Amino acid sequence: MNIRYLPILMIMLSPFVAIQNSSAYHNLNNIFESTFVFRSLPGMPVNFEVDGGTLGGGNGLTIVQDACDEWDGLPNVPNFCGNLNQLETDITSSNFDSIVPQNDGVNTIVFDENGSILADLGVPGVLGLGLTTFNTASGLITDITILINGSIPSSASADLLATVIHEMGHTWGFAHVPIGGINTTNSVDGFDRISPSAIPTMYPFAIPQDDRFGRTLENDDLGAALLNYGP
Amino acid sequence: MIKTKKINFLILIMMLFSFSMIVACDSGSNRETDPDIPTPPIVGDDDDDDFMDDSQLLTGTGIIRGSVVSSTGTPLNGVHVRAVNIDDTDIQMSSFSGIDSDLELEDGAFSIQNLPPGTYRVVIEKMDDRSSAFDPDRYSLFVIAGTNVNFPDEYWNGADESDEDDPSDFEPIVVSNGSTVNGIDIITNN
Hints:
The complex is a heterodimer. Chain A is α/β, with parallel strands linked by helices. Chain A is built from 6 helices and 8 strands, in the order H-E-E-E-E-H-E-H-E-H-E-E-H-H. Chain A has a 5-stranded mixed beta sheet with strand order 5-4-6-8-7. In chain A, strands 1-2-3 form a 3-stranded antiparallel beta sheet, with no helix packed on it. In chain A, helix 2 links the parallel strand 4 and strand 5 (81-86). Chain A is globular and about 50 Å long. Chain B is α+β, with helices and mostly antiparallel strands. Chain B has one domain: Carboxypeptidase-like, regulatory domain (Immunoglobulin-like), CATH 2.60.40. Helices cover 14% and strands 29% of the residues of chain B. Chain B contains 3 helices and 9 strands. In chain B, strands 3, 4, 6, 7 and 8 form a 5-stranded antiparallel beta sheet that branches. Chain B has a 3-stranded mixed beta sheet with strand order 5-2-9, with no helix packed on it. The termini of chain B are far apart. Chains A and B meet through helix 1, strand 1, strand 2, helix 4 and strand 7 of A and helix 1, strand 1, strand 3, strand 4 and strand 5 of B.
C-alpha cells in the first residue's frame, strides 16, 4: 500500500477522526452521530510558544504580536492572546515532530520559513494552517498549532500579518466565510458586492484586490467572536 | 526521508485519535491565494474604516431568523444567507441554512446574529458551481450536504416572496437593539 494513502483510509474507517470542518455562523463545528458540536477555547487568554526562527526573513514575533493586538482589540470580547514566549529554537521540518507534538496542551506558532513543513503535512503552497485538537463531546479546544508559510514573500497579494490573524481565527474556533466570494472575479455574478476593504478576514483566500485589507477584522469576524465569547 | 517521517507522524496522530472517542484533530483550516485570480490587482492603501465602531456595539445587536425552502417546499441546507445593510453595504454578515438560532440542527432554518441595528436586505446564494470562493469543500461537511441545489441568487421579498418573484426585488428588514426579526422565509426560484 502506498503510504500516502494510508491516512485517507484511516479517516474513512474511523468515525471519531474529525478531519473535515463543518461551518455554521462561521464557528468550526462537527457533527458526530447527529450531535452538533461547536469548537471553542476552554479559557482565555491563550498562551503561545513562538518559533525562534524568522518569518519572511523578518521578526515573526512582531507579526504575531500585531495579530494578537487585532483580535484583542475587538469590543465586548475578552482578550484572546496571553503570553507570547519565543523559543530559542528555530522550528524546521527536521525538528518539527519533536518540538511540536500534537495535543500536549502547549500552543505553538511555527514559522515555516521555507514551506517544507506545510509541504510535508500535505498542504504545500498554502499561506498558513491552523490546527486544533478538541474534545468531540464538548468542543473544547485542547491544543493549538499554527503554521505560517514564510516562503511566500509578504506582499499586497499575500500578506503575512493577514494570514496570521486568519489562522488565529481558526484556532479560536472560527471557520471560513464566503462573504466576498462574488468580489473575486467580475465573472461571478451576485448581489451587493462588498468593498475589498470590508471582506472578512476569515474569507478563505488572500483578498485579491489587496491582501493587506485582511489585517483588520470586520463585522462578520466580530459576529463570530461575539457568538462564542461575547457577553 | 523527512517527508516519510512527517507522514508517519500524521499516521501516528490519526491512529491515536482513531482509538479515542474524545479528541479529534482538525487539519483543514488553511488560507491560500485564490486559484481563480492568476494575477491579483494591487491597490495602494490599506485604510479601512468599514468596521463598526464601539458606539454601534454599545447600542446592542439584533437577529434575523428564517428559512430557505425549494419551490416544492423542501427545506434546503447549506445555503449561504447574507444580510446586507442597505445604508452601508459594507456591513454584511451571514450564516448557512440548516441551523436555527439556538445553534441546533433544523432543516432549512437560518439565523444571523449580532447584527448592528439598521435596515437590511437578505440574499441567498448557492454554494457550488460558481467559483473557488464558493467551493463547499472550503467550508464544511454541513455545507457540502447542501450542494447540487440550483437556484438563482435572490433577495427575500416579503409578502411577494414566491418561486417566481423577481430575484432583485427585496423587502427591507429593520433590525433594532435586542430585537429578533422572525419569518424571513425564502422560497428559491426555479
